[in-house]
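## retry 2 of 3
previous attempt timed out at serialization; input unchanged, resubmitting
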Amino acid sequence: MGLFKKKSKKIPLEELVLPRHIGIVMDGNGRWAKKRGLPRMAGHSFGAEKFKKINEYCLDRNIEVVTFYAFSTENWKRSKEEVSNIMDLFVDYLHQWLDMDDSKNMKVRFLGDRSVLSPKAQELMAEVEKKSQRFKNQLNIAINYGARSEILRAFELLKGKESITEQDISDSLYTYGQPDVDLIIRTGGEKRLSNFLLWQAAYAEIYFTDVLWPDISFDDIDDALRFYSSRQRRFGGV
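## retry succeeded, writing output
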């Protein structure tokens, strides 16, 4: 169950105050598969399809920026077979994007250290980023991403600078030029950020739901949007 609880009639979506930037932690693929007696990879496959649908739904809602947490720097601890299968799914997605490349797409940026990914994946990532530049709304895919590593990288880029401002750090992150995340949605029941957008989430509203990622619905996303709209965002003021 999400944090948003409202017994009265739901506010129509067109009346909501919507976030500019949504971050989504797609958690629960493995548990979803286990509940059904399926291999973990089945959960990741279903989760990948749900990623495409939710991304398109956010585009239809005219969300300016959506960031999906696809693979963390800690996920390398999983079995070699699982990691290999996840990377194969990622490469398949890149091929599909390039084959479709239509009006339902968004400008794509990959967040994270891509140097350890396969040369083929890196080549396709660069091609997708280049070809997607004509689109307006922004899709970020965090892969081999960790917020602490991102902040460390920012300080490395700023090394030698006499004084460093918060804006300097923001401009040195993978999300440079984008608004900070307003709303983070995490599925799967866990209630933590797990090293996701730590700098950018300083004032983010956080919505947790027990729904496993492959089961996430458009109604679940709408509930998260209603939760966000119900919040009074004072940013430290009164």
